[in-house]
Amino acid sequence: MSKVLKDNFKYQYANNYDLIYKDKNYILESKNFINLINKYCNNTKFNFLDFGCGTGRHIRHLSHYFKSVIGFDISSAMLEIAKKNINKNNVLFTDKKDILMSQKFQLIASFFDVFSYISPKGLIKTLKLFDKITTKNSLVYIQFWNEENVLSYPPRNYTNKLIDRENNVFRSCSVNLSVKKKLSS
């Protein structure tokens, strides 16, 4: 794929991202996340990193719980949208790893399967980065797809026509889930 095509795709995807995922319940996910964190911490007044923050929808619902929040994403188009939508004194959006390196985080979260977009070499680099920017008792939360959840809550076939003032976006999902019985030894 050419660089121009890739850049155009990234821009279009970023501009339609919130429309595509408009049915995603960020409020409930954020509430469940805070409930989980509260099981391990008495207090959330510390530095929080949302790694792969996209358009900042989780941060919108989480920022008031934390002393400071950094939303990191490699997509400058996504970050532009996040910056437009969220203007809070304790929130910074960036694509610069040197800004992360100048901080210490007590909590890092990576929501919505971000890690599946990272190459194996990139995963090692990312985990080494997390090691450098966390404190001794930091928590790291990584959300990803796993077999148990996919089998318990299988994806469904659907087609959505999503409309906003400027765009018509069609989103469809066709599922062909083949489950093979595991053999135990």
Determine Rg (CA atoms, Å).
18 Å
Q: Per the principal axes of the C-alpha atoms, what is the gross shape?
A: globular
Strand proportion, as a percent range, falls in 15-25%
Per CATH, the class reads Alpha Beta
Question: What is the number of helices?
Answer: 7
Q: CA-to-CA gap between the ends?
A: 45 Å
- What number is the mean pLDDT? 84
Which structural category do the helix and sheet elements fall into?
A: alpha/beta
Provide the CATH superfamily.
Vaccinia Virus protein VP39
Could you characterize what this model shows?
By secondary structure, the chain is α/β, with parallel strands linked by helices. The chain has a single domain (3-142), classed as Rossmann fold, CATH 3.40.50.150. It has helices at residues 3-20, 26-40, 57-62, 76-85, 97-101, 120-133, 147-152, and strands at 47-51, 68-72, 91-94, 105-110, 134-142, 158-163, 168-173.
Write the layout of secondary structure elements.
Layout: H1 3-20, H2 26-40, E1 47-51, H3 57-62, E2 68-72, H4 76-85, E3 91-94, H5 97-101, E4 105-110, H6 120-133, E5 134-142, H7 147-152, E6 158-163, E7 168-173
Parallel strand pairs: 1-2, 1-4, 2-3, 4-5
Antiparallel strand pairs: 6-7
Short description:
By secondary structure, the protein is α/β, with parallel strands linked by helices.
Descriptive keywords:
alpha/beta; two-stranded antiparallel ribbon; globular; 185 residues; five-stranded parallel sheet
